[in-house]
Design brief:
Layout: H1 2-12, H2 20-39, H3 44-55, E1 62-63, E2 70-71, H4 73-86, H5 101-115, H6 119-140, H7 143-146, H8 151-168, H9 172-183, H10 197-217, H11 233-237, H12 271-284, E3 291-298, H13 300-306, H14 314-317, H15 321-331, H16 341-344, H17 347-353, E4 356-360, E5 369-375, E6 380-385, H18 398-408, H19 415-426, H20 435-440
Helix pairs in contact: 2-4, 2-6, 2-18, 2-19, 3-4, 4-5, 4-10, 5-6, 5-8, 5-10, 6-8, 8-9, 8-10, 9-10, 12-15, 15-17
Length: about 450
Amino acid sequence: MVTKSLVTQIIETRYEDISENARYEAKRSLLNWLGVAIGAANHESMDKLLAVARQMGTQPHVTVFGRKEKTDMLFASLLNGMSSHVYDFDDTLLETVLHPSAPVFPALLALAENKGKSGKEVLEAFVIGCEVEARLALAVYPSHYWRGWHITGSVGGIGAAVAVSKLLDLDHEKTSYAIGIAATEPVGLREMFGTMTKPFHPGKAAMNGLLAALMAEQGFTSSLQSLEAERGFINVLSEENKIDILTEKWGGKWEVEKNSYKPFASGIVTHPAIDAIISIQSRFEFQHGQVESIHIKGHPLVKELTSKQVLSTGLEGKFSVYHCVAAAFMHGKAGVDQFTDECVNDETIKSLREKITLEVDDKIKEDQVELTIKLEDGREFTEFVEHAIGSADKPMTNDQLIEKFLDVTGDIISSDAKKELVDLIYKLEELDDLTPFFELCQPVKSLNKR
């Protein structure tokens, strides 16, 4: 029974068994995740969901990062998971396009704040929860994704359930129950990309995983072979037969070590094209009126995921390689401000989008692109990106990651709070009390410091 073997590995793995590099990457993952969660804290979708929380009579026990309000554990995990994915600026495991932190950290941190867990315990649980969701994603990819599942939501809830079970120190049977409960409620349709419901997926996965572990803690039962059974998760939701991935070579190399971080606030497959156009513009600084055409030759997923051409909202722009390239051409970057409704509807950017064409080439890898810009005077310039910045082969440095954190959090928390948070995260395993961490993530603490 694969689930049984997997749970044994989950329970027997301790912090000391996790490689130093994996622990370090877990802290980088937290820094990146926290920044984008705080950065989107005041998005209108958060206001709408908090209004629902108030209607439900939620209790103010747990931090909503970047907000004054607190909620109960379940709503906090939902809200924090959603905010961290609103800008589509969170981390990615490129083999499966899984965003590993968005479902796991919200559930873990909600429980950690409520139960007074240590930083070391959080890091241990995160690496293990991330490992399970990443291996499960590999086990069901690609058919699961091509069927239309948003893989972050569908496997993320199981990763969150595993992480919380680890943090609660559940026994073998109850951890198996938690996996089963989470496995029976996958969430996320790719049809929702470009709407508020896409970031809702990892938030709901976090909520589902936390709830599953808390239910299992009380002895709520489920199948003990929920992943591998004939009518279990893998067989129902995919056409693959790669179940051995879940347990083989456990502890040899941790999946979090492959994590990548986005320099651009859009779908990951648009990044090579953005990288290419920024590279060209940094050298030549063409004016939009000089451009006759821009041709993108990219991986098939670029067309599958980001071929939207009729746009009206910033969220839609994140899934339009046409907008990504046009906005990056005009602004020299593709951050949060390039994916507002105003930017998407800017007349100059709209006219430039109409000059962009896309071609699919199976020989081009996911982190590659060939982009050609042709000018009205007949000159052509071609840029081939071998590995986009932020990819596994060209990762963001610590300085770049910290700069992203400082930038994306804006004026929501103070400069002092930002610096303190960076310091705390890089020494998280030393913190027996995480109270200062949670306090620094609330704007009320620092408003008078600015």
